[in-house]
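[SOLVED] Predicted holo structure with magnesium ion

Edit: marking solved, answer below. Original request kept for reference. I posted the sequence and ligand SMILES and asked for the 3D complex as structure tokens.
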Amino acid sequence: MSTPIIEFRGAGKNFGDVTALAGVDLSIDAGEIYAVIGHSGAGKSTLVRLINALERATSGEVLVDGVDITKLSERRLREVRLGIGMVFQQFNLMRSRTVFGNVAYPLKVAGWAKADRERRVTELLKFVGIADKAWQYPDQLSGGQKQRVGIARALATNPKILLADESTSALDPETTGEVLRLLKRVNSEFGVTIVVITHEMEVVREIADRVAVLKDGKVIEHGPVREVFAAPREPTTKTFVETVLRARPDPADLARIRERHPGRLVIARVSDDRRIGPVLSEAISRYDVRFEVVHGGVKELGSTSFGSLTLELIGADAAVDKLIADLRAATDVEELV
Ligand SMILES: Nc1ncnc2c1ncn2[C@@H]1O[C@H](COP(=O)(O)OP(=O)(O)O)[C@@H](O)[C@H]1O
Ligand SMILES: [Mg+2]
């Protein structure tokens, strides 16, 4: 898993005097699920549209399978696009065609014979779990079912790459989970490289191997999802991570906590390789400091867990200082004042 299938080399995109992307370097490996997260307007859709050349870069290079697609003719681009499927936030299904007709459409365009189309569509609808809906129309389906049709259609011609731009943003959390699990199966069973564009860190946590954080058209941080969650560096990334962990008490929580817990409060980040248990278990015997967990959350990520805990530390000031110093040696600690 280390051959890049998609590479951005200093890729930029301007719309008039608006810079949507400013010199992006990014390398996505064949067979991985790569997430790009950012707030609205960060340049995510522009980035994904450069991969299938719906937009042309105004500077730098975009390589797909080693070929710089910014230099290709429209004719050659059509061939490249055949190897790339796309799913959309609003599904983009044709209302006048049945589920079957929607999934068969790209095969028709690609010139597949009728019998081959029927076999392929049947197989795809079964894979995405809506074989019983083949003769229904999009308007008769739920959001999750529509997105299953969108995924089946995107996979019809056996693409190596699947681009998903906010593909779960119109769905409720439960349906989001079902669609993300389906995308994971697309990746693991067919080896399709998936680029997931999202503004939700929970989506990144559930599905991605690696993540890049986009801000004002630039990649400000990237890495394996577990590393970014365990130790986010940029303020934007920290905010995204906290949305998942609900780790930090909000002002109303904090006011309630303060009423019941007059001691000093600290927030400590925890993960499998940043344990605070050993320090806390000695708090009483070494420093005569008692502690209580007053807020926090720990989540699973693959085989590891991570999160943060708000602790009340009760004891003499100098002793609490010493305990905090020990905690700081183990992990990031912030005192709430
Ligand atoms: N076709 C376009 N014409 C002019 N400006 C655009 C166009 N597409 C995107 N932009 C601008 O580029 C920036 C990035 O947009 P976009 O890639 O859609 O961000 P995101 O998907 O992260 O919300 C925004 O400022 C947006 O207004
Ligand atoms: Mg967008």
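OP edit: The chain has a mean pLDDT of 93. Thanks to everyone who chimed in.
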